[in-house]
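Two entries, shown back to back:
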Amino acid sequence: MQHIMIFHWQGGASFLMGNRIMDTMWTSKRLVVSVTSVIGMIIVGLLLAVAIYLTILDTYGFIQLILDTDPNVIEKGLILEFIGAVLLIIICLELVETVFSYSISHHLRVEVVLLVGMTAIVREIIVIDIKTTEAAMVAALGGVVVAIAGAYYLVERGKKLVENNDKNGN
C-alpha cells in the first residue's frame, strides 16, 4: 500500500508518492504548452495549405492571363488583381511564420503582426477602385496605415531602449 502525502504551496500542490514527487503546477504547465504547440502546428499546417493552394491558383490564373490575352490589351484591373493575390499569399505566409514561431517559443512578436497588418492594408489600397470608393473609406485606410506605422515605430523604439539599457547595465 502506497502512502500519499500532499504538500500545499503558493503556486500549486506537490504529491509525494513513494519516492516520486509530482508537481501539479509544473505538470499542468507542460500539458498546456504541449496542447498549444499541437494546436499551433495544426494552424500552421492549415495556413500553409491555404498558401500553397492560393499560390497554385494564382500562378495558374496568371499563366491563363498571359496565354489568353493580347499583350497590348492587358487591363489594369487584371494586373492589380494579380498583385493583390500575390500580396495575399505573402500575408498568409507571414501568418504561418507568426503562428509557427509562437507555437515554438510561446512569445508573440508584435512587430511581425504589425507588418502583416500593414501588408494587408497596403494590399487593400492597391486593389481599391478609387472611382467608386467613398472618400471616408480612403481616409480610414490612410488613418489605419498611420496608426500601424506609429505602433511599429513605438515597438521598435522600445526594443532599442531595452537593448541600450541592457548594454549599460541599467
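entry 2 starts here
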Amino acid sequence: MKNIFHLGKGKVTTLHELFIEQLKDLFSAETQLIEALPKMAEAAHAPALRKGFEDHLEQTREHARRIEEIFQGLDAGEPTGKTCQAMKGLIKEGSEVIHEDATPAVKDAALIAAAQRVEHYEIAGYGTVRTFAELMGYDAAVRLLQETLDEESVTDKKLTTAAKKLNAKVPVGHAVAHA
C-alpha cells in the first residue's frame, strides 16, 4: 500500500505523526498563497477587494510563521518537504479566474469565490490540526492554531460581506423571479 503521507518512516501509526504531516501540508498551502495573493490583488478591480488581498498576504505570512513556531516548540525540524496538492489546485483555479476575459465586476465576483474556496479549505485544515493538538496536550500549538483559525474565519466573513456588496453590481443576466 502506498504511503500517502510521505513521512519516509513507513506506516503512520501515531496522531503526532499525522499532526506533523498535516502541519507540513498547511505550511505548503500558506507558502503557495504567499506567492498567489499578490497576483489576486493585482487582478482585483475594486480597491477594497485589492486591499483585502494585500492585507491577507501579511496575515498569511504570519500563519506560516506560526507553523514554524509550532515546529520549533515540538523540536520537529522544518515544516517543509511536502506540497499541498489541494492548494495547488485551488490556486490554479484562481489563476484561471485572473486570466478570464470578463468585465471588472464579474472578475471581482469570481476572485471572491476563488478566495472563499481557499479560506474554507484552510478553516477545515486548521480546525483539524487544532483538535489534534488539543488531544495531544500541545497547549502552545492549540493557542497558535486557534488564533490562525479565528483569523481565517474573519477573512471568510469579510469575503462574504464583500461578495454581497460587490456582487450586487454584477448584471444578473436573466429575469429574477420573486417567490
